[in-house]
Amino acid sequence: MVGDDLVIARPEGLYCPPGDFHIDPWRPVPRAVITHAHADHARAGHGAYLATAVGAGVLRARLGAISLQGLAYGEAVHLGGVRVSLHPAGHVLGSAQVRLEHRGRVWVASGDYFVSGHGADVNATCAPFEPVRCHCFITESTFGLPVYRWRPQHEVLQQVLAWWADNAQAGRTSLLLAYSFGKAQRLLAGLAAGAAEGIGPIAVHAAVEPLNRAYREAGVVLPPTTVLGAGAAGRAPPRALVIAPPAVLGSAWARGLGDCSDAFASGWMQLRGARRRQGLDRGFALSDHADWPGLQRAIAATGAERVIVTHGQEAVMVRWLQQQGLQAGSFRTEYGDDDAPAGPAGAAGPP
Fold first, then answer.
1. 312 and 299: one domain?
2. What is the per-residue pLDDT for 312?
3. Looking at 187-337, which runs of residues are DSSP E strands?
4. CA-CA distance, 235 to 253, in Å (whole number)?
5. pLDDT tens digit string along 198-231?
6. Per DSSP, what are the bridge partners of residue 99?
């Protein structure tokens, strides 16, 4: 650590000394800047929150009544002696990179982000990633291995539609497991055509619906959905596609769907072994995180000469960055993975 670093690691989380605030802290602090509302980055108990205005609805849906200041993308405020602004990360609704400027130095903390490698093939449910020039870039590395290279989103969605259509024709329900915040809404937007074309209706688990509401209130267009709450699984409409969080895998709720085929939409489905361990019928490799080439493009676009890796495949990414001649290191954090598969007992990643 250099004495004048703009961000350092503390037990509470990433801390900006000259501004006296934390970024995505995992323990209660007086003032927190939040990159996005996933549970490992946005936790209850902080004195004051700063986040994007467009993501405020999701934050409040997840954390309840909080003292929250919302910023438009690119809008700047001064915290202590630091100029702070938030810039699109392309991950989920309201996700942001945090730009810090102090005495001529610029640091950017990425949070989680998604970078498309296929032109206009972006996540339509949130603002696309925008590179921000800086001296130091703090980056995630969830899928920081060369094996992770995403296929174009429209190809993956066509695979999901074909699976749903085959199940509908056979009279089976299609249970698609996806994280309740972000991935579920991305799938809903991308699969709306299936309902419009008459494959069948779309239903969601009750845990997904509050996030759908927050997206719709923020202006994101999602198709109509039926909500299946506790005890309502057996009333899934015929030929339906049901989107539910991974935690339902193997549960009484899922068994109540009757004859169904199950699948999981996650970047981890890039590896066949991950699907086999879950005992799933299908796996679709669709992620809200940057893949290996996306991480490389994003880092290069910042022009940073120093890069700090926060979570994921840290050692591999740090070694690769050093081989490119960059000053690279890592911060140990408590961030998890919203894209993680469910465990053997049906446990999932962050709620």
1. yes
2. 86
3. 202-205, 226-228, 241-244, 260-265, 282-284, 306-312, 327-330
4. 11
5. 899 999 999 999 999 999 999 999 999 999 986 6
6. 85, 108
Run of H or E including 109: strand 105-109
Q: Are 25 and 12 in contact (CB under 8 A)?
A: yes
CATH (domain of 175):
3.40.50.10890
Task: Give the helix/strand (H/E) hosting 86.
Answer: strand 82-88
Single out the residue of 280, 261, 258, 255 nearest to residue 269, CA to CA. Answer: 280
Q: How many CB atoms lie within 10 A of CB 346?
A: 15
In which residue are the tokens 């910023």 written? 71
Among all chains, which residue has been given the structure tokens 């995505």? Answer: 24
Q: How far apart are CA 19 and CA 81, in angstroms?
A: 6
Domains in the chain: how many in total?
2
- Residue 3 counted as domain residue: no
Specify whether 172 is located in the same domain as 82.
Answer: no
The Cα-based distances of 103 to 9, 75, 138, 150, 284 in angstroms read 21, 19, 19, 39, 46
Domain extent for 140: 8-148+288-330
pTM above 0.85, yes or no: yes
Reported as half-sphere exposure (CB side, CA atoms, 13 A), residue 238 has a value of: 4
216 with 246, same domain: the answer is: yes
Answer yes or no: do 298 and 219 share one domain: no
User: Counting every residue, how long is the chain?
Assistant: 351
First to last CA, the chain: 33
In 10 A of CB 48, how many CB atoms?
Answer: 14
Q: What is the pLDDT of residues 38-51, one digit of tens each?
A: 999 999 999 999 99
Which among 135, 98, 112 is positioned nearest to 2, based on CA atoms?
A: 135
Q: When comparing pLDDT for 157 and 350, which is higher?
A: 157
Bridge partners (DSSP) listed for residue 176 = 243, 263
Give the C-alpha separation, 43 to 182, whole Å.
17
